[in-house]
Every structure is written in C-alpha cells, then in structure tokens.
Amino acid sequence: PRGRDGRWGAAGHGGRRRVRPSLLRGKVACGAGPGAMPGRGALCLGLLLPVLLGCGSAQPGACPALCECSEPAKTVKCVNRNLTAVPPDLPPYVRSLFITGNPLTDLPAGAFPAQRLPDLASLNLSGNHLRTVEAGSLALPALRQLDLSGNALVSLSPQAFGEGGSPLEELALRGALRDHGVLLSLARLPDLASLNLSGNHLRTVEAGSLALPALRQLDLSNNSLVGLRNVSFQGLGQLQSLNLSDNSLGVLWNSTLAQFRSLPALRHIVLGRNTWVCDCAIEDLVAWLKESNQVEGKEALTCASPDKMLGKALLKINGSDLNCSVPTDLPSQLQTSYVFLGIVLALIGAIFLLVLYLNRKGIKKWMHNIRDACRDHMEGYHYRYEINADPRLTNLSSNSDV
Ligand SMILES: *[C@@H]1O[C@H](CO)[C@@H](O)[C@H](O)[C@H]1NC(C)=O
Ligand SMILES: *[C@@H]1O[C@H](CO)[C@@H](O)[C@H](O)[C@H]1NC(C)=O
Ligand SMILES: *[C@@H]1O[C@H](CO)[C@@H](O)[C@H](O)[C@H]1NC(C)=O
Ligand SMILES: *[C@@H]1O[C@H](CO)[C@@H](O)[C@H](O)[C@H]1NC(C)=O
Ligand SMILES: *[C@@H]1O[C@H](CO)[C@@H](O)[C@H](O)[C@H]1NC(C)=O
Ligand SMILES: *[C@@H]1O[C@H](CO)[C@@H](O)[C@H](O)[C@H]1NC(C)=O
Ligand SMILES: *[C@@H]1O[C@H](CO)[C@@H](O)[C@H](O)[C@H]1NC(C)=O
Ligand SMILES: *[C@@H]1O[C@H](CO)[C@@H](O)[C@H](O)[C@H]1NC(C)=O
C-alpha cells in the first residue's frame, strides 16, 4: 500500500494528471514521472523492482479520460465511449490499442504520432463510422496488425501508412468499404501477409490492388463476386489461403484455374456457398476439382442451377450430364420454327402464283374453252327447255313427228 501511495504521489507531483477512476482501479501499474523526486523514485524501484522494470525512464502511465489502461498488458481500451477524436494523451507504453464503437469519422494526419507511440503494434479501430483516413495518420513504426472493419471508408490515402514502407502484416477490412476505390490504396504494403475483405459487396477486384508480394491469406468471402475472369492473382506469389465462399460465382474459367495451378503455395481454396451453374461450361472446373487437392471441402460443392441439376455434387458430374441447350432456350427455338414455317408457306404461295402467271395464256384458253363448253351446254338446255315449255312447238314437233 505504501508503494502504491508513493506512485500515485509521484504521478501527482509530476503535475501531469489528476487521479482518474481507472487509475484507482489499479489498471496502471507504474508512474515514475520525469518530475518525480529522486528519493521517491528510489523508493518505488526498491519496493516494486520486478513490476517497474518495464517502466524504465518512461513518462507516467497516465490514462486518457474515457479509456481503460493496463500497463502490464500494455493495452489501452476506449470502447463505446462517444469519442469523436483519437485521445491525444495515449500512454507511450501502449502496444495494443482498442478504439472501437466510437463516432470517429476522420483520421487526420498525425492522429497516431509515431514518436509518442513507438511500440504500438496492434490497433483495433473497428465499428467507428470512419469515412476518411488521411495521409500520415497511421504512420506507426511498429504497427503490425490493424482492424478497420465495420467502418464506412470512402477514402484511404495511399500515404496513410507513411511515405516509406509500412511494416503492417495483418489488415482487416470486413464490411468496411463504402467506396471500392479504397482497395487501390493497399498496393504499398510490402509486408502485408493477411488481408480480410469479406462482406464488402465487391463485384470484382481491380487487378492492381492485388499486387501484394507477401500476402499469404486473402479472404474475399461474403461478397458479390460473379466471376474471376478479370481478377488477376499473378501478383500473389506467396498466397497460401484464398476464401471465396458466400459469393455469386457461377463458373471458373480456364484462365483462373491456370492461375490457381501456377501459384505454388496456394493450398487452401474455399469455394463453398456459391451459385454454380452446371451446364457444359463447368466441365473444366469439374475436371480441375477432381484432379486438384487445392480446394477445401470440395465434396460439399453443389450445383445451384439449372433446376434439373440443383443440389447435385460438382464432383459427381460427368460429361453426359451437362447440357448447354438449357430449357430457357425453348421459347426462342419455338419462335425460330414459327418463322421458318412462315417462310416456307410464303415460298409455296409465291411459286403457286408464279406458275399461274407463267400459264396465264393456257389458263385463259382453258377458261374460254370451259366457258364455251358451258355456254353450248346451257344453250342446249335452254333450247330443250324452250321446246318443252311451248305447247305449240310441242304440237308442232309431234306433228312434224307425224
Ligand atoms: C456524444 O458527444 C456529443 C458531442 O460530442 C454529444 O452531443 C452527445 O450528447 C454525446 N452522447 C453521449 C451519449 O454521451
Ligand atoms: C477488434 O474489435 C472487435 C470488436 O471488439 C472484435 O470483434 C475484433 O475481433 C477485433 N479485431 C481484432 C483483430 O482483434
Ligand atoms: C456478410 O456481409 C454483410 C454485408 O456486409 C453483413 O451484413 C453480414 O453480416 C455478413 N455475413 C457474414 C456471415 O459475415
Ligand atoms: C471463409 O469465409 C467464411 C464466410 O466468411 C467463413 O465462415 C469460413 O470460416 C472461412 N474459411 C476460412 C478457411 O477462412
Ligand atoms: C472484365 O474486363 C472486360 C474488359 O477487359 C470488361 O469489358 C468487363 O466488363 C469486365 N468485367 C467485369 C465483371 O468487370
Ligand atoms: C481448358 O483447358 C483444358 C486443358 O487444360 C482443355 O482441354 C479445354 O479445352 C480448355 N477449355 C476451354 C474452354 O478452352
Ligand atoms: C455418369 O455418372 C453416373 C453416376 O453418377 C454413372 O451411372 C454414369 O455411367 C456416368 N456416365 C458416364 C458417361 O461416365
Ligand atoms: C439434357 O438434354 C436432353 C435432351 O436434349 C434431356 O433428355 C436430358 O434430360 C438433359 N439432361 C439434363 C441433366 O438436363
């Protein structure tokens, strides 16, 4: 207890901060300030040498308002605290910093000053309503792990991580991109080994943004990728794991399969929960699945269309199952057959008319003949009728017969 009093006293004497509730809760274990009297410092060291070794000549372990600090764990948490800016007085010992669930909208240049946070290695800024990350805001010499998930990033400066190369190794951008152009700013992360881009409604990935020579894990799951024809994985020579689950992939073409084959370290490709279209175009994918051991859980991949193939395992497909004249073609086929029928009928009609035209003289003659024949015939009838109808003529005829 005496040692503790001494330490709090030292912090107070340094005139840096009033005592905060978090300090009273004992979250900060050290506080030998530059203004502390030598005697007190010696007392502190004498009583708590093992604990204080880590503190060295550092500034007092002040903790910003609204944050919780633990110096032994080198951790500071400012969680769900209505912070609108990064606290300027973060303790310099911090290695692991959580500023999550706050209404931060902007990270200006120098939001995390490199000289005051030399050891900051893990930074969690998820769920903060962040829209812009400006040049130089994250230029931290020790930053290895950054979580920007659950923000609404519209712009991320290509110089956000400083002018030189950043040591960043792990970056999470789950559901973080409001504007997909942000991806283009990731090209300057030579040490990035893990990139999580899931849940971003991505329909395609710009070729240039995936030139990350050290990348080993890429998570593109839960997006809206409809195809990978335009996506180039060539710049990812170290890639080991690729998660493409929960997208809208219908087929993978030869060009993509060839890229997968050519990546030597790529051993874990996840393709589950996509909308595979099982027509003849999927043959190359099926052949690759059968021969390759790069795909995790390939037995569980199933067709989503056409209806006849719904739920059928991709691995169980063989060539004879695959139709490209899918039923949706039927109406158009019918339509073409109607058109064909119409053309044939029109041709027959035209030929008929032509024949009539060419034979017009013969037909005319024939018609005349028929008419004449009819007339003769009718005249004959007429004559006979007249004779039969006239009693005098009848008599005459009978007389003449006589
Ligand atoms: C959050 O901060 C804003 C201004 O910075 C203030 O108007 C608001 O009342 C605060 N909300 C809470 C819950 O503290
Ligand atoms: C960052 O914080 C969020 C919310 O607390 C958590 O879900 C997430 O796992 C953290 N990220 C990392 C990389 O630890
Ligand atoms: C998928 O992404 C959407 C949109 O970002 C998100 O709301 C949903 O929670 C994500 N689902 C999973 C399983 O992560
Ligand atoms: C791939 O992503 C899905 C959905 O986000 C997740 O459930 C699964 O665990 C991931 N698999 C791997 C190997 O990372
Ligand atoms: C793929 O690239 C071609 C031209 O290179 C373009 O016409 C097409 O729209 C692209 N597709 C997607 C999904 O971006
Ligand atoms: C895809 O490649 C295989 C050989 O690797 C070849 O047999 C097949 O015809 C190719 N498919 C297309 C559509 O070019
Ligand atoms: C296709 O697979 C079925 C079983 O799924 C099998 O009965 C059939 O003989 C196979 N056809 C060919 C041509 O391999
Ligand atoms: C493929 O088409 C033929 C007729 O063209 C049909 O009999 C067969 O059922 C179809 N198969 C599938 C799997 O759709």
Automatic annotation (TrEMBL):
Q: Any transmembrane segments, and where? A: 338-358
Q: Which SUPFAM superfamilies match?
A: L domain-like
Could you tell me the superkingdom of the organism this chain comes from? Eukaryota
Q: Which residues form the LRRNT domain?
A: 62-96
LRRCT domain mapped to chain residues = 274-325
Question: Sorted alphabetically, which InterPro entries does this protein's record hold?
Answer: Cys-rich_flank_reg_C, Leu-rich_rpt, Leu-rich_rpt_typical-subtyp, LRR_dom_sf, LRRNT, Wnt_signaling_inhibitor
GO BP: any one term: olfactory learning
What are the entry keywords?
A: Leucine-rich repeat, Membrane, Repeat, Signal, Transmembrane, Transmembrane helix
Any Gene Ontology CC annotation: dendrite
Q: Name one Pfam family in it.
A: LRRNT
By what name is this protein known? Trophoblast glycoprotein
